[in-house]
Amino acid sequence: MTEMRQIEAQTHAVPDADACWDAFLRRDRSFDGRFVGAVLTTGIYCKPSCAARHPRRENMIFLADPEAARAAGFRACLRCRPDEVGRDRLAVEAAVTFIAAAETPPSLEAVAAHAGYSPHHFHRLFRREMGMTPAAYARSLRTERLKSALEDGGSVTGAIYEAGYNAPSRAYADAERHLGMTPSAWKHGGRGVAIRHAVVQTSLGRVLVAGTERGLCRISFDEDEADLLRRFPKAEILPADEAFSALAVQLVRLIDAPAESLELPIDVSGTAFQQAVWAALRAIPPGETRTYGEIAAAIGRPGAVRAAGTACGDNVLAVLIPCHRVLRSDGSLGGYAYGVERKKKLLEREKG
Q1: Element (H, E) at 122
Q2: What is the CATH number of the domain that holds 53?
Q3: Can you give the residue range of the structural domain that contains 312?
């Protein structure tokens, strides 16, 4: 019977069994729903986070999903209930649609009731799947609507209410956190914002470093003041003072002789998802790399690999937010906004 199961399962086996085994050993919840592990000796399949005692490695195979496991003759574990992962994911997707359709952020109770779960349980479930709470997700959507409304023209006040805010004060508080500047400044290309900048020479080429009084807002290769003006046409573009020049020197050292990550203040705009990806990038130690799939899993969104890659591409702080440390799943370098050769050299330096 064991041999028959193994033969039946071969056509549905996942390609990277070693990575799956490592996830099982860690009981890594972020991999739930991406595959299941089936035990040849007992005929049971489990999700990666199952708390049951691990079988011997030679007795375990990994399949793409519960359907493949059942087709091969395995039955679901009664302890971890792997079939419910799919149901949970569908419930979260339904909640996402419900939140997006609401004119104002719905309560946790309303979202949970729509999904068919208790509020407490669904709060944990949503955060596990999305990397943020339902309330945080609703706020991020509202901020995105505000950003779009501001870019479409019209009055700032009109954009605030069109985005679903009940009062301007809440909109300004959210904008300060997610847009990196006030709604009126965003609408008017940085009007009222002072941005200091410097163009410094590094061993990998010329680098533009720019920042507001809150923190760095742009680090990029092969750009200069003209590029900064195109991004913020109404901002006051100022030369570097003594303090900002010292900060730019730190960035040069980070590029030329990387030893450890720098903790510098930043002022960048981004959705809640982008902010989560960028935070995960900054958590990668120098000399190490991650795949796009690992970044997605790290923020609780294992299915959002493509979106994680897009968020890496949207990074405006080269090297400081180290998107160059992210590789494709096959270990190849993948793309890089400033050239793959630069990415290769940055990684080589960090590995010493």
Answers
A1: helix 119-130
A2: 3.40.10.10
A3: 272-350
CA-CA distance, 164 to 167, in Å (whole number)? Answer: 9
46 in active site: yes
**Are 175 and 203 within one domain?**
no
Instruction: Say which residue, 146 or 205, is predicted with more confidence.
Output: 205
Of 48, 82, 116, the residue at which a domain comes to its end is: 82
The mean pLDDT of 52-78, rounded to a whole number, is 89
**pTM of the prediction?**
0.53
Closest CA to 148 of 170, 168, 169, 178: 178
Residues 149 and 199: their CA atoms lie apart, in Å, by 33
User: For helices 305-313 and 272-282, what crossing angle results, to 10°?
Assistant: 80
Q: What is the pLDDT of residue 43?
A: 92
**Residues forming beta bridges with residue 207, ordered by sequence position:** 200, 221
Catalytic residue among 80, 217, 312, 323: 323
What pLDDT does residue 344 have? Answer: 92
CATH code, domain with 109: 1.10.10.60
Do 204 and 291 lie in one domain? The reply is no
- In the set 46, 80, 217, 312, the catalytic residue is 46
Annotated active-site residue 50? The verdict is: no
Helices and strands (H and E) in the chain: how many: 16, 10
CA angle 282, 287, 290 (to 5 degrees): 60
pLDDT of 14 reads 60
Q: Chain-wide mean pLDDT for the chain?
A: 79
